[in-house]
Structure formats: C-alpha cells, structure tokens
TrEMBL record, chain A:
Protein known as: Protein NBP35
Family named by the database record: Belongs to the Mrp/NBP35 ATP-binding proteins family. NUBP1/NBP35 subfamily.
GO molecular function: 4 iron, 4 sulfur cluster binding; ATP binding; ATP-dependent FeS chaperone activity; metal ion binding
Span list, region Disordered: 33-52
PANTHER family: CYTOSOLIC FE-S CLUSTER ASSEMBLY FACTOR NUBP1, NUCLEOTIDE-BINDING PROTEIN NBP35 YEAST -RELATED
Positions bound to ATP: G92, K93, G94, G95, V96, G97, K98, S99
Keywords: 4Fe-4S, ATP-binding, Cytoplasm, Iron, Iron-sulfur, Metal-binding, Nucleotide-binding
UniProt-listed GO biological process terms: iron-sulfur cluster assembly
Annotated residues for binding of [4Fe-4S] cluster 2: C281, C284
UniProt source species: Trichodelitschia bisporula
Gene Ontology CC entries for this record: cytosol
TrEMBL record, chain B:
Gene3D superfamilies: P-loop containing nucleotide triphosphate hydrolases
Major site of localization recorded for this protein: cytoplasm
Keyword Nucleotide-binding: yes
Protein's recorded name: P-loop containing nucleoside triphosphate hydrolase protein
Keyword ATP-binding (UniProt): yes
Compartment(s) where it occurs, according to its Swiss-Prot or TrEMBL record: Cytoplasm
Family classification: Belongs to the Mrp/NBP35 ATP-binding proteins family. NUBP2/CFD1 subfamily.
PROSITE patterns given in the database record: MRP (PS01215)
Entry's Gene Ontology BP terms: iron-sulfur cluster assembly
Amino acid sequence: MSTSTSTLIASTQSEPLQAVLRAPLQAAPELVAPEPEHCPGPESEQAGKGDACDGCPNQQICASAPKGPDPDIPIITERLAGVRHKLLVLSGKGGVGKSTFSALLAQAFSSPPRAANGEQPSASAPAPTVGLMDTDLCGPSIPRMVLGPDAAKTSIHTTASGWSPVWASDTLALMSIQFMLPDQDAAVIWRGPKKNGLIKRFLKDVEWGDLDLLVVDTPPGTSDEHLSVNSFLTASGVDGAVLVTTPQEVALLDVRRELDFCRKAGIRVLGVVENMAGFVCPNCRGESEIFRASTGGAKRFCEVENVPFLGSVPLDPRIGMACDFGESFLDAFPESPAAQRVEDVVRQLRETIGLEARVANP
Amino acid sequence: MTLSSARHILLILSGKGGVGKSSVTTQLALTLSAQGHAVGVLDLDLTGPNIPRFFGIEDARVTQAPGGLVPVTVHEGSTAEDGGQSRGPLYCMSLGFILATRSTAVIWRGPKKTAMVRQFLLQTLWPPLDYLLIDTPPGTSDEHISLVETLLLNMPAATGTGTGTPSIASAVLVTTPQAVSTADVRKELNFCRKTGLVVRGVVENMAGFVCPHCMECTNVFSKGGGQVMAQEFGVPFLGSVPLDPAWVRLVEEGKTPVYPKGTVVAGVDVGQEGGTAVEPEAEAQTESKDPGLLVEKYTHCSLFPLFDGIAKTVSSAMEAE
C-alpha cells in the first residue's frame, strides 16, 4: 500500500482549512495523469509543491500554472452588480427540504408582500424580482417544484450577452442544470472541478439583470459546490445563509457540521428553519412527531449554538403534492398552518436582510 | 486484499438526499445479521457520516493495525442455544469514527474525497464477510465515481451478468414516493446502467405514516412512485417501507419498539407480532436506553418483517450468480 493509514487519520485532523477556503478557484490546469492521492489540488497554492507532488507526472504543469485570485471573480461581481441581496439555503443533510424551502422562499418573496393580517396584497406595493439558482447539479429539483411537469419542455436560451434564465412568473427567474440536460433522466456524473465550472458559469454567464434577491439552493454536504459558491460570491457580498433541518438528532448532527462550515467560511447565519416538525393526521386531527425531536429539536439547537431560530414548519402532505405539480403551496393553501409558518419565516428574513423596508408597514 | 474478504458487495444508492439511504443500510445490515450472515457496513458519506449514530456507536474509534484500519464491531456473531436462528457478526467503518468531534465539518473538495474513498475501500481490514453494504452520499459525483473506479480496478474476478457487461457490484436504490424524489433517482438508475452496477431493486421509503392515534395510514409523501419507476426501468420493486416513529425512536433513544394492539403494517399485525409479549403500554417514558443489542430490539420493530423479505430477495438474487 503506497500510503500509510496514519496519513489517512492525520489528514482528517490537521486539515489546512483556511487554505481550502481561500484557495482561488482557478480553472484547473490540463493534467497529463490522474491526480495522486493527497493531491493538494491542481488549482491550489500548494499545487506542485506538496509532498504528494513528488514524482507526479503533473508536477511541472501544476507548479507553473498561474496562481492568485480567480480572474473571473471581478467579472462575476460585475455581472451580479444589479443583485441587491443574496441568500444561501444550506443544510448538511439531504432531503430535509432545502429545495422545497428555497422554492417557497422564492415564491413568497416574488409575490407582492401580504399584509400582516394575511389579507389580500396591497396593489400599490410592487413585487420584488427574485432569482432562484439551483446548484444541486446531481439532483436538480427546483424546475420540477416551481414549473411542475412543464419543466421537461423548458430549456435555456442563449443570447449575445449570455444565458437567459427561465422566468417562472414576471418576477421569478430560475436557473438549473435540469434545463440543459438532453434527457430528463440523464445522470450528471461529474467530479468536483466540472461542477465548479458550471456554477461559475451560472453566475458569470447568466443574465440575472436587476434582482432584489438571489436565492441559492445547494446540495447537501460541505464540499465543492459550497466552497465554490462561497468563493465566487464573497466579493459581491452574501447577506447570509438559512439552514434547513428536520427535528431529529440524525439531521441536526449534519446541520451542526454545516454551521461549523458557515462559521469557518465567515458566512452569516440568518437562522435555522425546522421543517417536517409534527404531523397532523387528516383523519383524526391527532398530532404526532414523525421525526421525533429527542434532543429538543432545532429550537434547543439554536439556543445552544446561539443562532436565530426562525420557526418550525409542520409536515403537510399537500406541500409535497404541490411540489410534484409545480403549484405554489402558499398561493393554493394560504390559510394552512404550514403556509402561515412559512410566511412568518419570510417576514423575519425580509426584516433581517432589509428587503422592502419601504413597504413593510403600509 | 481487504475487499476480497467480502463475498458480495451491495451499494445503497439514491440520487436524492434524505430518502433514508443510511436508514435502509442500517436496517438491511441488522436484518442480514439477524438472518445469520456476517455483515460489514462501509459509510462513504464523507460530509455527513451518520452510520455511527444509527448503530448507536458514536463514541467508537477505529484502531490502526499494520496494513490498514480495523473496523468497529457492532456485535459479535452468536449461535442461538434455543434452536433459534443464529446471528451473524456486524462490523462498521465510517469517517465518523475518525473525526475529532461530532460537529466537525469535513470541508473537502473532490480529490481529497477520492483519496479517502480509495483508502476506505482498500485499507479497511474486514473480517470474512458474507455481505459488505456500502452506504453512499446523494448524487452521482466524486464519491460515486471513485467508488466504482476502485471496485473496477480491484475486483478482477467480477462476475458476468450474462448480458456482456461485467458486473462489479450490486446496488439497491432508495427513493421516496414523490415525483421530485423519483426524478433524481432515475438519474441514479442511469448511473448504474452506465457503470455496470447490477440493480437488485428499488425500495420505496417513507411510504405512508400510520397515525398512532387512529391507526389510519396517511401517504405523507404520496404513494406508488417507486413502484412505477421500477416498472419503467425494468428493475425489481422490493417494497414500500412506511414511516415508523418507533424506528426513529429506537435509533435516537434506544427504545425497543412498542406498538398499540391492532397496529397493522403491510398486512402484518405488529401489535402482537411474532408472539412477543409486548405490552401495549401507552408511552412508557423512561430516560435510559432499553437493555439488549440493537439487532435484538430491531426484531421487534414493525419494519423488521418488511426488511426480512427485502433482504431475502436481495441476498438470494446475489447468491444465484
């Protein structure tokens, strides 16, 4: 065995994390051989200089590749100059409702703000323009959730100034890899650098135009997509991240890791939303906890970790159904407890990031 | 070679996150062990390693030995004295056993994950195993590509499927019933086709929830999506697994599942299932864990009969080759 196991253990403990976070996201140089184990990454500062580089056929290529900040970052910053606020939706855990919640958030923000008493929206208040970017490249769900089965027929148009996003309504623009796939079920079997490249193009080449808010939906975990989004957007400024979780400890365990990531990467945590909390039986109205909060759930988690708790949204089978058909759950069932909890979260976020300060109190 | 200690390799895959891959992996492992097989579980979800939590062994640490890492023993094998079925040993390997604290984020880019996957696969000193179950993160990216590549390079004795493509391992796909979820799992099915993984079947998880108050089953995440998808792709449908709060409770708190009389899951009345003297005591609240091994407690779970069937279908299909 070429590498000893002690290297394996040591590598998990002495993680040069700041180096990873600051690593400029260059397009990786063309390699002549696969990266060796413990490759510092062809695009990193250490490329060609690390211990693992000795004897690697790529050593010269990596060592001579240009270093320093990614020249594309100023281009991204310029492209996103018209975007007033940026919001990341994160969760270490999969399937807790990141995409559902991103879609709900984007739909809620892009409709005219409802008055606090839940009455009809005031006609005078203009609806903000919202962009929703799906960085989950291996499991893109946003198109289906927002457009329903029509998503299959939608594709991206290219213009002289870049890719036009797909407009789901007058005020909601979408971008997802799903719109680019030749076939609905095509698997995107990509390694990290290729994913980073596409995320960069989503920011650099998409005509987002003037947006009040850009919501970025992410895949589960703390890996390439998250690091890329963070490094591409830091220069243009991110308002913060919303963490989504479910009540059980198995999910909170991963959210704790995501919070650790946010802290290390310097991303402001706007708050935690607890999804799928409690289920009301449609038959007997009895309430039960499907995902039991044995450790106090997200509320307790927020107290311990000292981050804002934005609320818990009960599990409503109609949310999943609305997502399958691409309906807006908030418009279809505005009176349901789940919709009201979501609206409540939206209200808090609006205040925190300062979106629509002018129409908050009509 | 450490991989050759395993007679069969079974990957648990899903394009979608949070559909219950780790939960299904854990239950398949417990069931196969209860059926008398020697089982190993390898957790390749590097940024969210939850297998240690599922087995209730978060404090365990792997030990180093010359040539590799020794997996954690969940329980030893045993032969039943009363003529019942003997139990196979269960071993487990996860990045969670190596991390310094449980909240440490593993912020790695692709090449590092690739190296880790390779080392886990090649340097874990598994004892002889009947089945090695590999739990994976969602998606079709670095971990998956590295896993398949490593298997391909290190399994020269790969058996043929009869269709010409060499099979490197078997896979079980997990989905939830909604269209949003099956859409992602379809991508994973195409991944399996491209990489020569033999799909042993699809498990539809979180199909329905039995209200503990009125015993009415609600399809929380709709129903039937997994079956339709399996038919479309011509792969076996292994079954629908309902949501069972008692299973979550068993994992989270170590409580032996107890059901009120008359709870029927998949046509089996688990209220008195298997003649076990489970008193339908309403919410006997105690702080401590119930005594006994996880695998023993699991046999009282309403999901055990379902997984008993699923495990038998999958293992007989794998043995048949």
